[in-house]
Prior knowledge:
Four copies of one chain form a homotetramer.
Chain A: E1 6-12, H1 17-27, E2 35-41, E3 46-52, H2 55-58, H3 61-67, E4 72-78, E5 93-97, E6 100-107, H4 113-122, H5 132-142, H6 149-159, E7 165-170, E8 173-178, E9 187-191, E10 194-198, H7 202-207, E11 210-214, E12 219-224, E13 227-232, E14 241-242, H8 243-249, E15 255-256, E16 259-260, H9 261-275, E17 282-285, H10 291-301, E18 309-311, H11 329-332, E19 335-337, H12 339-342, E20 346-351, H13 358-369, E21 374-379, H14 401-404, H15 407-414, E22 418-421, H16 424-429, E23 437-438, H17 440-443, H18 455-460
Parallel strand pairs in A: 14-23, 17-20, 20-21, 21-22
Antiparallel strand pairs in A: 1-4, 1-10, 2-3, 2-4, 5-6, 6-7, 7-8, 8-12, 9-10, 9-11, 12-13, 15-16, 18-19
Amino acid sequence: MIRHYCGIFGIYNHAEAARLSYFGLYALQHRGQESAGIVTWDGQKLREHRGMGLVPEVFNERHLGKELKGDIAIGHIRYSTTGASLIRNAQPFIVRYKGLEIAIAHNGNLVNTLELRRELEEQGSIFQTSIDSEVFVHLIARNLNGHTLEEAVMAACRKVKGAYALLILANNKLIAVRDPHGFRPLALGRVAGAHVFASETCAFDLLEAEFIRSLDPGEMVVIEDTKVQSYKIETEAPTRQCIFELIYFARPDSLVFGEDVYQCRKRMGQELARESAPDVDFVMPFPDSGVYSAVGFAQESGLPYEHAMIRNHYVGRTFIQPSQDMRDFSVRVKINPVKSMIKGKRICIVDDSIVRGTTIRTRVKKLRELGAREVHFRVSCPPIKFPCFYGIDFASKGELIAANHSVSEIERFIGIDSLHYITIEGLLRSVSHPENYCLACFTGDYPIPCAGGGKLCLECGC
Amino acid sequence: MIRHYCGIFGIYNHAEAARLSYFGLYALQHRGQESAGIVTWDGQKLREHRGMGLVPEVFNERHLGKELKGDIAIGHIRYSTTGASLIRNAQPFIVRYKGLEIAIAHNGNLVNTLELRRELEEQGSIFQTSIDSEVFVHLIARNLNGHTLEEAVMAACRKVKGAYALLILANNKLIAVRDPHGFRPLALGRVAGAHVFASETCAFDLLEAEFIRSLDPGEMVVIEDTKVQSYKIETEAPTRQCIFELIYFARPDSLVFGEDVYQCRKRMGQELARESAPDVDFVMPFPDSGVYSAVGFAQESGLPYEHAMIRNHYVGRTFIQPSQDMRDFSVRVKINPVKSMIKGKRICIVDDSIVRGTTIRTRVKKLRELGAREVHFRVSCPPIKFPCFYGIDFASKGELIAANHSVSEIERFIGIDSLHYITIEGLLRSVSHPENYCLACFTGDYPIPCAGGGKLCLECGC
Amino acid sequence: MIRHYCGIFGIYNHAEAARLSYFGLYALQHRGQESAGIVTWDGQKLREHRGMGLVPEVFNERHLGKELKGDIAIGHIRYSTTGASLIRNAQPFIVRYKGLEIAIAHNGNLVNTLELRRELEEQGSIFQTSIDSEVFVHLIARNLNGHTLEEAVMAACRKVKGAYALLILANNKLIAVRDPHGFRPLALGRVAGAHVFASETCAFDLLEAEFIRSLDPGEMVVIEDTKVQSYKIETEAPTRQCIFELIYFARPDSLVFGEDVYQCRKRMGQELARESAPDVDFVMPFPDSGVYSAVGFAQESGLPYEHAMIRNHYVGRTFIQPSQDMRDFSVRVKINPVKSMIKGKRICIVDDSIVRGTTIRTRVKKLRELGAREVHFRVSCPPIKFPCFYGIDFASKGELIAANHSVSEIERFIGIDSLHYITIEGLLRSVSHPENYCLACFTGDYPIPCAGGGKLCLECGC
Amino acid sequence: MIRHYCGIFGIYNHAEAARLSYFGLYALQHRGQESAGIVTWDGQKLREHRGMGLVPEVFNERHLGKELKGDIAIGHIRYSTTGASLIRNAQPFIVRYKGLEIAIAHNGNLVNTLELRRELEEQGSIFQTSIDSEVFVHLIARNLNGHTLEEAVMAACRKVKGAYALLILANNKLIAVRDPHGFRPLALGRVAGAHVFASETCAFDLLEAEFIRSLDPGEMVVIEDTKVQSYKIETEAPTRQCIFELIYFARPDSLVFGEDVYQCRKRMGQELARESAPDVDFVMPFPDSGVYSAVGFAQESGLPYEHAMIRNHYVGRTFIQPSQDMRDFSVRVKINPVKSMIKGKRICIVDDSIVRGTTIRTRVKKLRELGAREVHFRVSCPPIKFPCFYGIDFASKGELIAANHSVSEIERFIGIDSLHYITIEGLLRSVSHPENYCLACFTGDYPIPCAGGGKLCLECGC
């Protein structure tokens, strides 16, 4: 399973800043389910509440109505991939330096953390967590002497390498930054006189906020009182937005990188159909991931669209495990095929990715048991062969099935009659600005060279 | 909103009877989310656990692994419609009478409860709850003197009028009954040497149990040790199965009343398309209720199928309310349209029902705001004009929009360009045995005349 | 350990009836920690909330401020001794009969339950619980035809045998009853224009209510509107109040049966000192049970009083168990001796009872390990040789150490230098009306003969 | 109310290090009820769990049995006095520096924190909390370059001023330190081959550990593998142990500073009686604080000891507040007088301190209402006139009644017939080494001069 990394939300100048942040994070919940946090500026000091769990589990009316006072807020939701799930790693992260309190919410992954950390420690920095964001904020603090906060943030951005969409809150200043490559998305909007920032525009829709624009790669927006200023991190970095946001991460009703996610996914399905449409009775998705590309595939191929795998809407996160002999239970509990639709049929399944292939294999086996005559598989994403160092947790290279196996080996492993992955060219035809995307997970061509010597490097093979 | 009433599950002769009941109820969760309960027979006495909430909230490992010992179990999930949500109303319901403990799990609604209650009280019965099932069990107990349990159950069944699918557990005997009209479904299956009963076959699929058959209307199945016996309640009642199970209630991957629910719903969409397919750009459902009829509609009409309303998968039951000025928030939080798909488009929405029309109206208004050029609405269910007394909570007659308004009035209220409800004839063409269904909510032609004088009667207008 | 059975509280005509009941139950918490419940009459119907746990765990502000509306309330706290701890057994218990709702809160144990239950079942009664109080309320209901509620209660009281202090709430009538022997206490008070009832007067102190009087044995008080009427159950039963309320149960700051509990306990200690004061360095209690008799003992004997066993005030009910090798942990965690006070000392311990002797033995062993030269034990209660059938759970006869062993055997078992139990005569000298007490647990002379054939009888040896 | 500041516990070389720490903290619970935490060294890295609440609320079996692996552990319980109660302030506190993880548990208060913090920030340190312990650990880290951990700790100790008992865990090294004045206690013991440290010896008793000795003021003990080494912080600081540990803080069954707490308190009562024993009917404590000095007072004066104020053992931390008109409720709910003991009596109350006097005043008023003829008050602690900067939270100077009022003014405020505080001389006669104690709260003679300019200084009046 591919894990979402984080979502961020910010708001400036709204009497119910914490409450709107709550709803904003709620709309971004698909980007992280491990922890959530909100920090507000009450005019005197920062106030914070963070906790493990989903947004509605972490916050209650007392937090929103009483404790998180103030007109400015930033929020964060997180899915952690490394180490234990600890409350200490929940964000936004706050530090105190010379009387100034700084809160930071970070979506993305830095690649020169170890190097920077070593350097900072030589100068006396001491760390409390293992998260990237702590390095960021130490860099900011070290650059504060004699400089404004925005200068310090800018200086820190020039030091770090990697992916980041950031929200920084200090006193009555709210700063939003996207890294020079623009790996992670960040959008600016307005609602009722307030400015809002969010990872995806679906957060704006829930608040009935107006979408203004995406931040540019390398752009820093600073809001203070009624003043909104935009700065540019000088750099020659080419734009390298994460195409996986479009394939898989973002909610289909969001605009991301200026692309309409729903339309992109449909186009991927259409391209896929053009590349390889089998002769079958119908097309169906594995709900809900493949729905939109399957719809496009069906339209382009002229094959009937069916929805013959039924999702159990009540599957929650806590669930008592069955005893040993209930084979493949956790796969079965989530979706169940409609038997009468499967028996004797030739079926084409459209899905948005194959990572390890094990879940798909179990599902296909079930279809075979129910009498499916042929099962073909079409994937709206090229083979994932390389790990991502910019914020997506695909599992390590050793576990990526496409990194180690040919298409026909995967066909045999999954037990299907035919398999086709969309080509990189087909994928790029589905988006508006094909030159602006990072394709490293397919090609191994990393926009930022590996920092070397670190843990990540062991995997990239550099 | 239409509320599901209940689901029941039973198992005989399995070492992990409670655990399998847990999974069975889990698969039936869509039929009731208010409370859940399991009762087991440990060879000496009944053991029980009931609680408010979803199945995984009510039970923990200790309940399943330690407390609910025994090879026989019955379980129940409930959505209550009358009175407060009280733990005392959760089922299975247990009574003690002359040293015999009897547990009952009941899906359905009786219509002569008040009359029977009055009669029983004259004879000295005292009640603790306001639920129908308590009347049932008093009747059974009163008939026990000198008779076997199955004779007593049979006698009770001859007294009560209304809808019931029942599971009764006493000592090592498990009894399953369907009322003579067969309003509610009940299926029999087998797994690993055990017999299982469930409201819907999707519970069998999760357990990898084999579906044997549906119980007949008026059939009582008694299991004791290795003996399985079938009895018939003598009655001339015609079969009147609840067609709403097929339209709306049952999970699409279930078999109910011998019908394949998915196929039925697709056929309803196809019939609907034959009756009235508008000239539009595409067809889409309101997820997830209308999906299957929309798929059928799209196939029959040749119109493109889209999935342009996006469901938020993290909407839970507890949620902090927004402040006053976030208009229509609770509608918006559940599904959000894809703007680019709506703007300038002529859209046909297919859904499975209109009860009050207020939610649909809000959604349509949103589509208009986003620039939809035309919005047409097709419903795979005829107009609901009469309340149900057999276990469905449609809201009272005064609230049923079709009971009080013409199609063109509803069109105007909802704000759509055209509205078409499937005809009763079209609906009946979608099912295999059209003569076996109760259509009272459409026609007012109740299979069981109202008992008179009761609370329900005030609504039916008799 | 001796278990407290129950406490009851009632209030009539107070705008915050539920809230005051909450505080009343809170003050009676020592009488039962398993479950708590409050029922109010809101002018139309009964409202109830019951739950497992301590009073502050069961109720929250919403219950007291919103849900439990009404000017009349009864409440109950419970320690169950038989069967599982089930929410269904929590009181007050409510039944519905011919449109009348009746709530009952019962402290005590009936002895002819099985007989009555059989009789009622012959007449068609069906039971849901195994608690005595359900029999009571069936009897009341059966007597309601053509009679007032107070007549029906009176008739029920004439049928049942055993111990009961009752509060009954139906419509706007509150009825309080004490059984003819007066086994359990019940006091009447007033606060701010309202009448209040409570098991012990310490509940009145917390509410700053005025204590009016104890109910007489066999008295029924009925409050309706502004009318307070007293009735007498005609019976020749002699008064037989439970002396264990004075020895152990009641809080020392309560008045019970017209006796001042603190003074009684001090007098028991004084009598005990007169009967047998050893030559030791000091007297000390096992906190907190023996404190008051130890104080009296020290004063009478002239020996120094010490408090050299220290109680851990944070021992709660949930506690992770240590690993195997932490011997006697659960005894040690509660009280810890002051080493310097023990070493080389001759000590007299005064306590209020010995049931099984095992905890005392462990504590004495610890004192020996710490170097105590002599350990003498004085008990302000005669040897408990017979089980109680009227509401105290001493453990069964087989477990009562004094039922099966001589004083010198017990001395040896516990490991003490001398043991003396107060004589029955000494005990009776400590109370004001010695003729009014039940001494059955010491003498086996039961005021109500055993009903025969029941479960209890197996133990009494009749 | 005087607040306890903290308790610490450590263990080296025990297979169940976390579990024993849990029990150790449990025994120290009286020293802090706000948060608890345990950190273990699993051989590779530190593992931690911290939470808000009592020890049994914070930890569950999973924490102790699975997550907190390792043979070495340190634990902390805390009562915070400044700022909000935040999980981020819970200890042990962990930092990472150059690949080394350091955990620290700190009991006490530093006085030059602001100064040190400023200095560290100049050198680039960034802080996450407002607690003293973070300064300590930054100092340690800065001294690590080219030095061993013990050297770095020693260097840090030479920089900080104030009160500290510390446990430090890094890799497989456990370091325990007491500040040069020895303000806070720290004891060393052994159990089953393991070394243990605890604030008080009552923690050893619960574990059946053997008490070895108290650490000396200024001593640092380092344990690594089987090696135990002791170092001395070179300093000329005189020993200044906190006499309030003996008067009030420590559990009476503990040994603290080589003193037996129970015996000390009794001697304080005896000295007090010698100084001023009134002619009354009896002596009683306010439970449970004054019990031990009251016992000594009664023995020395020959007056009868009574226990006539009854403590409610079920008063918990969460409690629904009564409505406005229940005057003095929170005082009344905790202890209730035995009326018959009060009426017409001349009473001498012995207690261990008066801080603001408001609670005592309410209690005395109640005694007067119940008819007490005379109420005399004796306090086993001299008047508290100055705030403490070394870890006790007496409330600010403006709130200390003895700082601003004469004895006769306090008599009048509380409403008593006579008041006597033990003299400083009398107090010192109660302890073994009178020259070794800090008396600053009585005399204003602070062992460490105020650092100046800080927040604390505003209060000391320097």
